[in-house]
């Protein structure tokens, strides 16, 4: 078993949460999301991001608007809906619980 496979699965598991967090700060353009995710070492490609954004939009968690660009075609900017904001709040709580639980397990030094 390769550690890289597990690392990829761990990243995929929190990708949706990270995307919602990025969008929660204000209108977000997909390439800006990719840039931030890449900078955070959340290795993501367009082929992963766009289907996820579509799924979140279809679940009524996101909305988007087209904004004219001076350097090319219009851009699609994403925002959270009220439902998306409530969903993100629940994910934040789950994240805190998971971090606490994981830290508890890591810090438990019982001899086996």
From TrEMBL:
Pfam family, one: PadR
Residue ranges of domain Transcription regulator PadR N-terminal in the record: 19-88
Protein name: PadR family transcriptional regulator
